[in-house]
């Protein structure tokens, strides 16, 4: 399942992460998907705030740690997703959580 890392409807362009855990870690072979109402196939990717590569596809598998955003022509830029290369990480499901929700944490090495 794909899960947005920000509340649905907050922006028109969303960056989805698979597997759906945050923070994302490089060794999970993370796939990012840019989803929005803008023009399909007109996706611009940014890594650490800079235009990144020539990848105009809507999704790709991450091979470098960093902070990613995407832009769909006509619907704007997504909120950022950070992919870490840490050896120890505490993860939560990549979905909107509210106070008093029960949540499963994962401590991974």
Description:
- By secondary structure, the protein is mainly β.
- The chain has a single domain, classed as Sandwich (Immunoglobulin-like), CATH 2.60.40.
- The chain contains no helices and 13 strands.
- Strands 4, 6, 7, 9, 10 and 11 form a 6-stranded mixed β-sheet that branches. Strands 1-2-5-8 form a 4-stranded antiparallel β-sheet, with no helix packed on it. It has a 3-stranded antiparallel β-sheet with strand order 3-12-13, with no helix packed on it.
- It is globular.
- About 5% of the residues have low confidence.
Short description:
It contains no helices and 13 strands. It is mainly β and about 110 residues long.
CATH superfamily: Immunoglobulins
Distance between the termini: 23 Å
Structural class: mainly beta
CATH architecture: Sandwich
Instruction: Tell me the count of domains.
Output: 1
CATH topology: Immunoglobulin-like
Q: Which spans of ≥5 residues are poorly predicted at pLDDT below 50?
A: 6-10
Major beta sheet summary: 6 strands, mixed
Q: Count the E strands.
A: 13
Determine the number of helices (DSSP H or I, runs of at least 4 residues).
0
- Helical fraction: under 10%
General form? globular
Strand percent estimate: 35-45%
InterPro entries: Ig-like_dom, Ig-like_dom_sf, Ig-like_fold, Ig_Fc_receptor
GO molecular function, one term: transmembrane signaling receptor activity
GO biological process, one term: cell surface receptor signaling pathway
Pfam family, one: Ig_2
